[in-house]
Amino acid sequence: MSEMTMEGRTRLDQLPEWHALAAHRKDLGDAHLRDLFEGDPERGRRLTLQVGDLHVDYSKHLVTDETLRLLRELARATKVAELRDAMFRGQRINTTEDRAVLHIALRAPRSAEIKLGGEDVVGEVHAVLAKMAVFADRVRSGDWTGHTGKRIKNVVNVGIGGSDLGPKMAYEALRAYSDRSMTFRFVSNVDGADMHEAVRDLDPAETLFIVASKTFTTIETITNALSARDWLLTGLRAGEEAVAKHFVAVSTNAEKVAEFGIDTDNMFGFWDWVGGRYSYDSAIGLSLMVAIGPDCFREMLAGFHLVDEHFATAPPEENVPLLMGLLGIWYDNFHDAQAHAVLPYSHYLSKFTDYLQQLDMESNGKSVDRDGNRVGWQTGPIVWGTPGTNGQHAYYQLLHQGTKLVPADLIGFARPMKGMPPGLESHHDLLMANLFAQGQALAFGKTSEEVAAEGVAEELVPHKTFAGNRPTTTILASELTPSVLGQLVALYEHKVFVQGAVWNIDSFDQWGVELGKVLAKRVEPALTEGAEVPGLDTSTEHLVATYRSLRGR
Ligand SMILES: O=P(O)(O)OC[C@H]1O[C@H](O)[C@H](O)[C@@H](O)[C@@H]1O
Question: How far is the CA of 258 from the centre of ligand 1 (A)?
Answer without folding.
Answer: 19
